[in-house]
Every structure is written in structure tokens, then in C-alpha cells.
What does this fold into?
Amino acid sequence: MHIHILGICGTFMGGIAALAQQAGHRVTGCDANVYPPMSTQLHALGIEVIEGWEPDQLSLRPDLFVVGNVVSRGNPLMEAILDQRLPFTSGPQWLGEHVLSQRRVIAVAGTHGKTTTTALAVWMLRRSGFDPGFLVGGVVPQLEGSARLGEGEWFVVEADEYDTAFFDKRSKFVHYRPEIAVLNNLEFDHADIFDSLSDIEWQFHQLVRIVPRTGRLVINADDPNLPSVINRGQWTPQLRVSAMGRADSDVSVSTAESGKIVASYDHQSVTTNWLLRGRHNAANVSAALGACISAGATLQGCMASLAEFRGVKRRLEALVQVNGAWVYDDFAHHPTAIRATISALREGNSGRVIVVFEPRSRTMRSGTHGDALVAAFEGADDLLVFSEHDLEWSINSELSAFDGFLQAFSSSSMLADTLLNRVSSGDSVVLMSNGALGGLRERLVGDRAA
It folds into this structure.
């Protein structure tokens, strides 16, 4: 079968492309913005990518168009597909019907930590002798790609609550029909498609409703909002996990001295080294352990593998040293994630924390998070805010309560100059954006690599 993927350069749709090719299909695709890292991964796979949405792509005559949620009505190619009544489906539906229907599925859901938890679960299962398939919404160098069919019975998928497509407004994860569902945490996000936290809870409830009674719900016992989902009704045994020492948890994780982590399950405790940082990552570890133990792995095997896991790109990823300070790259674009990242950088660090922040997501641009955003930056010393987009709020006004150096930029070159003038040895700099920060990363890395 020849499938043509609209929106192929997104991490999810790029993963669909890789899986479809591995399954023996001919794969082509298109997108408006063709750039690394996904364009590099697709090129390495030999997948043809067309830039733009021109209707002349119909001349490829694919058997099926697979449509990403970046596509909306008015898209020229999509309008041509509709006009000619050509076959199309969504990425999540294609994945559910053509891959997951033949596997035992672990779906990792939650507002935060999905990518890291999914990658951790895949890594732990691999190192425990399993060969799981997977689709991760990020780049994990140790997994050699963002998606792979694998030959084992299990498939681990990052289960996003974002809507499926313009023609299917259900959350993506309802297509996955998991045997094990991980509920990492729950907060209000995606204000462009959800009106309230209750709306998101309802979608999570739809996921819980389809987990079989022979399966498992892995629940973060530390999260205050998940009980409202579970209380709507659930029919599946639970495994409760905690990174805060809750007595009613089944899997408990805590950080010991620097570089050590302890996990307990079924009257056993294992201590190992780990390369990640922060309580939020301890929570991700607890969720991954819960999923893997539910799939038949052992606590000892999973913890042994953890000592080797180096993390996901753009999740507190060490990029380069500048003026004696480490620069980290992080995807954080929600107040809770921002606070967790800054807290992790503060651990064992007496230097300043300098945050470079780009409010780029549609929720961030809308100003939905309000005062919570100021509170999220409390642990930082300097806050440099960059935006090329129109915001529905004023940076200098809304963040005026920030107790430190604050400056807003629309020019990436001025941002870079200011950053380089302020940073000194012993500082930690974190670049927070789900975008490109006007090319700042490439400039900082390129200048030092030259």
C-alpha cells in the first residue's frame, strides 16, 4: 500500500511514517515546515517529503492519505482530497487499526512527562529482554529513532490527549485501546481545544473506560486531579505509584544522595545510579516502573537499566558550555513543567539560573496561565523572554512581579547578545521552548563547535 502523510514532520506523524515503512508500505509525505530533527530522520529512512500543501500531490495517487492534526479545513491539499472523495484517515486511527490491533498496548498518558516516561518504559523493557514496539513523541538517541515495530508482543505508545484530527475531535489516545494505561498526571492545558480541566478529565475518562478488566491502570498517587477521573468510574485493577513516599502506593521512588535513586515494590528495594535530575523525573521513573512491572518485567531488571538511560533530547538536555556555564535545552511550556525544570537545576547548584523562555504554544500565547506563570519562574535569577508571535498579553506587564532581571526580546540576535553578556562561570542557562527560539540553540552550539 502507498500512503501519503499530511503533516509528516511532526514527531507523531514522523513516527507513523517510520512504522508504516517498517511494515512494508510505500510512504511519502508533506508538510509546511520541513526541518530537523524529523526531516533528518525521514531522509535517513529514504522517505520522500514534499514541502507545502499543493493539490498537485494528488498525482502521486496513493492508496490512502493519513492526515495529521496540523491540517485544517482550507488546506489546499485537504480540500482537493475532499472534493475528489479520496480515502483518508487520521494518524491515530491508522496506528490503532494497522499496528496496535495486533499488539498488547501500553499507553502513557498525562499532561506532563509522557515522552520521558514512554522512552523510559521502552528502555526498561528492552534491557529486561523484551523487544517492544514503540512510538515516542521525541528524539531518544539510545532508541535509534522515535518509532519501531519491534518483534515482541508489547507496544509502548505516547498517548496524547490532544485532538485526533479536524474531522475527529476525540483525544488521540482513545484509538489505542491499551491493556496497560499509565495516568501520569492531569492539569489544564491545550486551551485552544479544551475549555476547562473538566473537559480534559472527561477525555481521560474515555480512556479509562476502554481498558479491560484483565489489564492495569498505573496511577500517579501523588496527583491531586486524577481521583476525579477515577471516581467517574473504572473497571480495571490499579497499580499506584509515588515519588513522594505515599504509604498507599504500590511502587515508591525517591532520590537519595546526588546521582542515586531508590525504588520499592512488593517488599523489595533497589538503589541505583541515574543520570536524570529532579523530582519530576523521579515521578516519570515511578510510572515507567509501574508499566513495566505490569507487563512482566522485574524491579531489579528495570532499575539496572535505569543507570544507563541518558534521557530524551530537549528534556533538560545539556547542550554546550558558554563562558563556563552549562546551557540546557528543555521543552517546558506549562507552568508546572517550568517550575519542575528550574527546581531540578537548583539541586546541588549554587550558581545563578538563567531562563530563556519562548511563549510559543497556542495556550501560552493566549495568556491562559496568568499568575501561575510568574510563580513558575520564582526559582530563576534572570528571565529573558523571546517572542516572534503576537501575544494576547504583555510580557513586561504580566511578568512584572518577577523578582529578578527581566527583559523581553523580539530579535534573536539581541537576545543572544544579552545572554552572552550576562552569563558567567557556574551559572545554569535553560532554553525553554517547544520551538526554535529564533535559531538561538544553533547559534550557541555552532559558535562553540566551530
In short: The mean pLDDT is 89. The CA atoms of residues 134 and 156 lie 5 Å apart.
